[in-house]
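Why this split exists: single-chain examples teach little about how molecules sit against one another. For that reason, every record in the complexes split bundles all components of an assembly together and asks for one structure covering all of them. Below is a record exactly as it appears in the raw files.
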Amino acid sequence: MSKPGALDRRLAVRELMVDRGDLLVVSGLGSSSYDLFAAGDHDGNFYLWGAMGGAAVMGLGLALAQPRRPVLVLTGDGEQLMGLGGFATIAAKKPGNLSIAVLDNGQYGETGMQRSHTGLGVDLHRIAAAAGIAAVEIRERAAIAGWRAELHKTSGGPRFATIRVAAENPERALPPRDGVFLKNRFRQYLGFAVT
Amino acid sequence: MRSFARAVRQAEGAGGASATTAAWPDAVYGVLKDAGIRQASYVPDAGHARLIERLHADAEIQTTVLTTEEEGIALAAGAWLGGQRSVLLMQSSGVGNCVNMLSLLGSCRFPLLTLVTMRGEWAEFNPWQVPMGRATPGVLEAMGVKVARVDQADEVAEAVSAASVLAFDSDQAVAVLLSQRLLGRKKWTGK
């Protein structure tokens, strides 16, 4: 069974967001959205508060629509586990500008720290790799900086990383919950007028 | 209300043009092009076969095959975030797979245009299709999706055109249900 991670999830996401440039980010519901917001709010962030299992494929739709921009989906192990079929859909479509990072603490953190499938030995990066996605496992802060350079590329994807983080619930940092606001803000950032 | 038996006789008398030979899928393709659709996704259905072929053959439209229909809801939302209009094709059995994901559309007022081929109604031979076919319009409406049903081949293109305006100009989630009678009887293969 895989060893649980030791990385601080807030630190890991801050490290991932350094020099974000024109990176567009979709975050999965729960802690991943809090982590992204805590790393610095940005008009190019779209925080999900629901739609569990949909983050990665939402990132696919965005990546196909914006092929000249890098797109990152930042989500948790539980959220990704609900959308495993998305690995096949993304691998078949091969969007060069899409990267997916799963903050894997092996737990369903929002609901009382019940152990998840990854905490019971299932490796998401191995499932992603079997589907045909370039996938890595990250356990150390230094490796995040290395992968960060990859996710700014708009070709060579899709990419996937399991980032092993410690099972802890840091203080909540709550991004806006109004979906219409988040949608319009994001589209305006890309130059689409709100009509 | 017209009796089922009489309606069956009328359809048989009309020759029962199947979806693979009918003209309406090409007309729908033209409507989607005129509406500026740039992405399409689907879980296949025989009734959508011709339209899927046309979409795949179009280099200006990114067409994505899904493992489950709920992916198509998330994909459509992502496409819209990135400034593109999309269409989602599915069979009525797939509507049940979408329920929680449809909350994404309501929460963010994302547009959705989906074309749903119906099973479990006209000349259905598989009883397992009946429960979800019966529930399809109610499930969609319960999740805030506007539903338009089309029974006549010559009304499909106009219905899709109207649905696309409602979806993309009024930020609504819209489903066009294509009736099983319109699609024609499904042929058993290997017999």
